[in-house]
Amino acid sequence: MRADTIFTGGRIHTGDPANPHTTALAVTAGRITALGAEALALRGERTETVDLAGGALLPSWGDGHVHPLLGGIGLRGVPVRDCTSLEEVVEAVRLWAEQHPEAEWITGDAFDPWLAEGGLFDAALLDAVVPDRPVLLRTMDHHTGWANSEALRRAGYTARTPQPVNGEIVRRPDGSPLGTLREFGALNPVRALVPLPELDEQVAALRDTTTALASAGITWIQDAWVEPAQVDTWLAAVRDGHPLAVRAGLGLLLEPDGWRERLPGLAADRARIEAEGGGQLTARAIKFFADGVIESGTAALLEPYSDCPHSHGVANWTGDELAEAVTAVDALGFQPHIHAIGDHGVRIALDAVEAAARRNGPRARRPVIAHVQLVDPADLPRFAELGVIANFEPLWAQTDPLMTQLTLPRLGPERGARQYQIAALLRSGARVSFGSDWPVTRYEPLAGLATAVTRQTPDGLPDGGWVPEERIGLTEALAAYSSGVAHQAFEEDDWGVLRPGMRADLVQLAADPYEVAPGELAEVAVLGTWLGGRRTH
Question: Which of the four CATH numbers 3.30.420.40, 3.10.100.10, 3.40.50.2300, 3.10.310.70 does domain 77-191 have?
């Protein structure tokens, strides 16, 4: 048997502790067939040779928490992601509205929540440029919206509107809505009024996003927010023999309202995805939001916010109700995937997993708690004890403006220094996976690697790193993006390390990451990505 492709001419990092490095790798029919000299012996007349040219080959990466469809659609609106001031955002809205007179709604995603003092955005600024059509913008964390007066009017929001469950309509002193909407209880009634793009436009957005993810070295993703209507979009994208550039696990959203009635639909969606997904899609995970985010004061904390002593934030579920829902989906064989930011949110998520295990008995459930920003010391050992995977977004572990202007003032110094305890959880024996939460932050794993290893901003600040005891080694960080995500996906026997028999999911880099200064990892070029031996970048 001759190889289809042989990789040689550089350093091959296998991610396998038993055999961490080799000089050549052979691929046949989408699988790794040999390493080292045995790989070179499989060269035939039709074998393609990929010269690594002194660079490196590694196991490809996964993204354990990303929003390719929501982000892909959202970023097709007003380009506000790179705006650096309120004035820039408003000007971008004005220009887009002028260029799209046919648009009924004007929307845009992923602007920075620190652009307004205290994260408070005034409808009057948007009214000045678009007074006659509704405008809804969402911050990069998707937990805060900025609406103009027409959007508020269409949603029926007035001074007399009661505060929604699991959300906040921020108000002026006279009680009228300011224009800032926090959390899904306040955002969803407005979002529901925005017309959905046509199916072909949604599919195009999904293809664009997954192609971009592949260009960063990614071959598997966890879509961590799939609403019922979006199942059709994913299935349409893999129909007719047009494979996507990545494989995907779909995390089906379960919200508190009516969750019991939704259970049969979850099982039906899973069956459809397994039957029609063409081997590219799975639907093992159920997505829960335990709480909100610290920057908007909606993450659920055990002790009050430092800048708002009357508030503990927002728990989207009561502890008992979350435990009952997690137990129910666990009994159906689903994997809980729980967004939990605050230490109270993390605790009720852990309690829910513990309740499910107690009620349903032992099985390979691999529950995921995503983000894990703040953990009470008493809860750290529970991750390993309960087999919970901590999914971190490593780019968040730095002193960027979000951290310095909004998060740290709200937590205070003691809690502020206990954020993103990646190293502590690894030392405890817990399993860790990495993701991006794109479009919240960049999807390129190389940027996340740099932050995980240094705990510094791209400018190299602070010296020695922020909370330096939580820095991790490059080998640990690479594993969190590869074998860690493969474990989360229940597929560690198929990908995540490079050894014979494994699927040829590979990433080629222009330089050996072990020979690059840690702060410069984000600048290393991705030269190639292969998914099951098929080149996707």
Answer: 3.10.310.70
